[in-house]
Amino acid sequence: MAPPDSPPVIAIVGAGFSGTLLASQLLRHSRQPLRLLLIDRSGRFGTGLAYGTADPAHLLNVSAGAMSAWADDPSHLLRWIDLNREALADLLPSGADASSFVPRQLYGLYLQSVLGDAECLARGEISLQRISDELVDLEPLPPDPAAPVARARHRLHLKGQPPIEAHHVVLAWGNSAIPPPPEPGPGVRHGWTAQATADLDPEASVALLGTGLTMVDMVVSLHRQGHRGPIVALSRRGHRPNAHRSVPPLGDWIDADRAPATVLGLWRLIRARADQAAREGHDWRAVIDGLRPRTQALWQRLDAGERRRFLRHAAVVWDVHRHRIAPELKALLEQLEASGQLRHLAARLLANDDAPQGSGRLLRIRRRGQASTEVLRVDRLILCTGIPLAYGSSEEPLLVRLQERGLLSPDPLDLGSRCDAHGALLDAVGAVQPGLHTLGSPRKGQLWESIAVPELRLQARDLAQRLLASLPRQLQGLPPFEAVPARAPVMPSLLLRQLFDADTNAYTYLIADAKSGDAALVDPVLEQLDRDLNLLQELNLQLRFCLETRLHTDHITGAGQLRRRTGCLLLVPAAPGIRNADRLLTGGERLELGSLSIEVIATPGHTPEHVAYRIGDSHLFSGDALLIRGCGRTDIADGDAGQLYDSLQRLLALPETMLVFPSHDDSGRSHSSIGEERRHNPKLAGRNREDFVRLMNQESLAPPEWLREALPANRHLGDLQPSDPYDQERRQLAIASRQAQATEEANKEIYNAFLGMFI
Ligand SMILES: Cc1cc2nc3c(=O)[nH]c(=O)nc-3n(C[C@H](O)[C@H](O)[C@H](O)COP(=O)(O)OP(=O)(O)OC[C@H]3O[C@@H](n4cnc5c(N)ncnc54)[C@H](O)[C@@H]3O)c2cc1C
What we know:
By secondary structure, this protein is an alpha/beta fold. The protein has 20 helices and 30 strands. The model is unreliable at 481-488, 722-726 and 749-759 (pLDDT under 50).
């Protein structure tokens, strides 16, 4: 085992949505050294079973607007799509927006990008190792006697490499704990595999067993590959998938605490509400969708007997109403049915034998409601039945082994595993297994609604919080007395460069963690792109992100171009109309740059979205809120003097010795300190809010030179130049006139100084 003071290790088994999101949450939020191991036997990280399909015709079953990976940032996926529209052109439906059902392949790329971003923004001492291998056994170990605090430990046995040890193990194996058996026989394929519809004569007859979402995938794939032969879809009750329709859910129509605790009671209630909704002109989907936030609570009110009753009698009907498909896929199914190529049969499969001559299958079936049987001859049978979660009855060696070791105990309904309210695994007598957790489908027996993104992203967030809270405390020794800083605290790893654009008087700041080489640029200027890229290269720094303090009115940002050239992320304050940002900031966030932590402080007033950036107690990048002996104007861009006063008060309450780096200074000063500004800032010293507002409202200033060009271009982060071409001539004239003015003023100063010497 690693030395006792080495970072805690969290191993996540499974890199589908659940494992990927859990890893991303841990990377994003850990404040202490951590080693993450993300293990997946497929060798793919971020796709899992659902989003690993290579067929672009396989669409999400939920529209893009509800599929953000981050529960607290619902438009994240849409912004990512917007940002990558060009690169994703072949996968995106035209005019894709929040209501579009985008290809699952695209969603897999999104999850990979989420993980990559979280990895690159994580603090320097947090590492992520992707391991392409299969967990075959898990062995509990006694706590390490040398460790200062007793911690659970497990040894993970992998198929292809020596065992590894971890303090926490998360079984994020979702839908895939029980893999499909290797090859079900000639002429039979699994719907989950890429081989399902491969090597098929276009005229061949195909039977699909099951009429759920996998059946839809198969029909869509067959159609895309130009299949002309007959397709028959078999299911016991002959249900067909329903399509989504854009209807707002009917919220709050059921009180989970008072709802019936029986399947029949719930059934009647839902029916009655759906009938009432129909009379009121609502769609039944609104009733089902209104249940979604309460489904887990309703399920948990049912006792074991009622849950079994539900599984036996109601689950199939529930599934076809709850799990719906994109309207365009439904239209395709209807079109194929109308043409006679696709048939649905309500029938039970009794036997499935090799056809006597050549390949193909003989399927003995009994139609619903009939006593006699019949035989169907098909060239291929594709199994599209549900995902098995029966851990108790499974012969999968890993599941058997874990149960023998007492680490995993099947859920009483044999629907996943027993676990506590937070996903900690429970043994057969209900005791928590220290250091073992799960999320997603394995919790289906406990929660029922535990398989789709809206639930999984919350589970990943909550589990990450619990895991981080359980890690050993990080304590630091007090420095020797002499080392206690008397002035601004020193940050040994902070590398800071102040850069200046003479044309617009704008300061850009390069902030970097000298240890890791991770860098950020605050308020880059478009015209200084080469300067900034050269400096990054000379100092051997990797640009991780660009930060803006506001939507600039005086220059066009270089952020968009920097992203194109370096792949950095753009983190910008949430102003209306901002397009293509990687993350919108509103204040309160902490951004990790190697070992540096940058805090975002909301400072509205100069503009509504304005933020400042703070590093510890030593550096404040105050943008246009607090300037040296002044403050930003409030008469343009929706400024508000009262708000600015409040923001400035918050900034002036920061530590006295903190250095202040503003966005501009007309007098050639580079920086100031909070203490200095408290005492000497004429806009603030001795003024109350009312005086300040009066003073600001009296100001009469010319509009910024580049307002007309800058605002629209900056809404696109400098990626999109304004439709009105950037007026180079006007810019050159303004620069020349500003230079002439500066020369005149300098001459005046020299002249006065000269006279002063002789008078
Ligand atoms: C076809 C399909 C379409 C879907 N569409 C949507 C949709 O549009 N919207 C939505 O919200 N939900 C959808 N879902 C639900 C889906 O289940 C979840 O969104 C989510 O993908 C589940 O991810 P997961 O990581 O929990 O599980 P999985 O995706 O099953 O990932 C588990 C991973 O664990 C790995 N693994 C398993 N055992 C081991 C082992 N022993 N060692 C190493 N690795 C292992 C597997 O290789 C796999 O990559 C869909 C599901 C399917 C099957």
